[in-house]
Amino acid sequence: MSSANSNAHDPQSLARLAADVAVTAGERIFELRARGVSVSASKSSEVDIVTEADRESERLIVEALLAARPDDGVLGEEGAGVEGTSGITWVVDPIDGTVNYFYDLPAYTVSIAATVPDASASADGRRAIAGAVFNPRTGELFDAWEGGGSRLNGSPITISGKRELATALVATGFGYTVERRIEQAEALTRVLPLVRDIRRIGSAAYDLCNFAAGRLDAYYERGLQPWDFAAGLLIAREAGAAAVGRDEDTAPGTPFLFAADPALVEQLRSAVLGD
Ligand code: IPD
Predict the structure, then answer these.
(1) Is 47 part of any domain?
(2) How far is the CA of 228 from the centre of ligand 1 (A)?
(3) Do the domain assignments include residue 4?
(4) Range of the domain at 234
C-alpha cells in the first residue's frame, strides 16, 4: 500500500492512496459477499440497511488511511468521525449501493475522497482534491485528482458532452424515507417526459463515475450525503462536468446535486425543479 507524508497534500499521492485502499476494501467486501450478507441494522427507515460488511469495510479503510496519514481526519457513512490536524479529511463510503450488495446486483462501490474545507465547492463545505471509486464486481477503478483529469483503470475518461436534454440519458436515485420519495417521484414526473430515459442504478458514486465515463449524459439527486458524492463528484468534474445546486447561489450537495455538460446543466435543473 502507498504511504504519503502526513502533511503533504499532493493530490496525486492522495489519489493513489485512495485507490489502493478502495481496492483493498472492495476485494474484502466481495469476499464477504460470497459467504452471504448479514444485515446488522437499519438507519433512516426499515429499508435503509447496514450490513456487517459495511462496518468491516469502514474499519479497514479508516485503519489503512490513518496508518498512512495519522494526522488526517476521517468522516465515514457508518459513523467514523476522526478529527485531524493536517487539513485533510477523508470522506468514506464503505459500500455505496448497500441494497445492490444485499441483492448481489453488480453495482456497488467503495468510495474514498480526500477533502479540504471550501464552502463554495459543495453544500457540505468541503472540496475533494483526490478520490477513487472501486466496483469490486466489475473490477472498475475510477480515480481523479484536482487538475489531473479522471481515469478508469488508468485510462483517461471524459463526459459524453451531450447538450440536448431531449436525447439525454439521465441517472438519479432515491432516498429511503417516504416523504423524500414522494418529492422525488414528483420530480420524476416532470423530468421523465423531457429526456431520452432515466436510469436508477443504485449507487450514487457509481452513477457519477459512469456519467464521467460518458455512459450516462447527466445525473441529479436530492438528499445525498457527503460520502455518496465526494469522490464521484470530483471524478465527474475532472472529466469535464459542471455541477450546480438548487440555484445559482448554492453549491451542489445534500439539498440538490445536478451534474451534466456545462451547456446542459441549467436545462436539467429547470426540468427537475419545474422552474
Ligand atoms: C445510496 C445510494 C443510492 C442513492 C441513495 C444513497 P447507500 O447510498 O448511493 O444510489 O440513491 O440516496 O443513500 O445507502 O447505498 O450507501
Answers:
(1) yes
(2) 7
(3) no
(4) 165-273
Q: What residues have CB less than 8 Å from 239, skipping those under 6 apart?
A: 144, 149, 150, 157, 158, 159, 212, 213
What total number of domains does the chain contain?
2
CA–centroid distance, 8 to ligand 1, in Å, is 32
Q: Is the CB of residue 228 below 6 angstroms from any atom belonging to ligand 1? A: yes
Spatial separation of the C-alpha atoms in residues 256 and 92, rounded to whole Å:
20
Distance in angstroms (rounded) separating the CA atoms of residues 114 and 241: 19
pLDDT digits (tens, 9 = 90+) for 63-98: 999 999 999 999 999 888 989 999 999 999 999 999
Q: Are residues 101 and 170 in the same domain?
A: no
Domain end among 97, 128, 157: 157
Ligand 1 pocket, 224 CB below 6 A?
yes
Q: Does the predicted model carry a pTM greater than 0.85?
A: yes
C-beta 102 within 6 A of ligand 1: no
Which amino acid residue places its CA nearest to atom 2 of ligand 1?
203
